[in-house]
């Protein structure tokens, strides 16, 4: 009987499956539309939250500016505002240049201790008119090393009276007596003979 019915109504038997497919497609379309509506709603809520956040930030900035600006103007009027950073003096700038120069030749030389012979020699360089006029780096290094020797061996106290003219603003080859420093024609110290000058202590590493 069933076979006979299928043979008699072949069109109805074939149309059952397309109807189900259409129904499923309709359900899928409805679900997709629902998801899109939900996504749009969420995006609108996010946009609204962002707008409220930016509005809050803008209001806060306006309040801060309205408080800070009057205070700053009052401080300037009273002269209590922050003072500008002091410009380094020429002496400190020159010291920095010489420290870089000296440490490039003598990496172990330090200047942290203000009472050290090295620091005293650097301070002397900064005040010595002859050194300040020099353009020869090797000449500056040589004068520094001799000044370190002077301070490290008690020059200001233990050396002979008036220190034989050491650290005077003239060529270092002219310091002391003739036999104290032997130099070549380029004022490079070749030998030292300081016996009897009253040195006290050991030789600094700058002399070797």
UniProtKB/TrEMBL annotation:
Residues 21-52 form a coiled coil. Keywords: Coiled coil, Membrane, Transmembrane, Transmembrane helix. The chain crosses the membrane at residues 53-73. This is Uncharacterized protein. It comes from Grammatophora oceanica.
């Amino acid at each position: 009987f069933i076979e006979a019915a299928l043979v008699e109504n072949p069109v109805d038997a074939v149309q059952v499956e397309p109807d189900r497919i259409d129904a499923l497609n309709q359900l899928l379309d409805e679900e997709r539309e629902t998801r899109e509506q939900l996504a749009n709603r969420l995006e609108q809520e996010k946009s609204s939250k962002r707008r409220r956040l930016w509005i809050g930030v803008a209001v806060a900035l306006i309040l801060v500016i309205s408080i800070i600006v009057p205070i700053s103007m009052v401080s300037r009027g009273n002269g209590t505002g922050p003072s500008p950073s002091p410009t380094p003096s020429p002496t400190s700038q020159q010291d920095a240049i010489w420290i870089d120069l000296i440490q490039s030749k003598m990496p172990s030389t330090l200047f942290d201790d203000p009472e050290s012979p090295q620091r005293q020699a650097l301070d002397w360089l900064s005040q010595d008119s002859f050194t300040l006029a020099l353009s020869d780096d090797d000449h500056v290094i040589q004068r520094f090393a001799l000044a370190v020797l002077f301070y490290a061996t008690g020059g200001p106290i233990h050396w002979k009276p008036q220190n034989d003219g050491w650290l005077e603003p003239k060529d270092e080859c002219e310091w002391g007596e003739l036999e104290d420093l032997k130099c070549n024609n380029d004022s490079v110290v070749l030998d030292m003979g300081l016996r009897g000058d009253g040195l006290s202590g050991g030789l600094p590493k700058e002399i070797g």
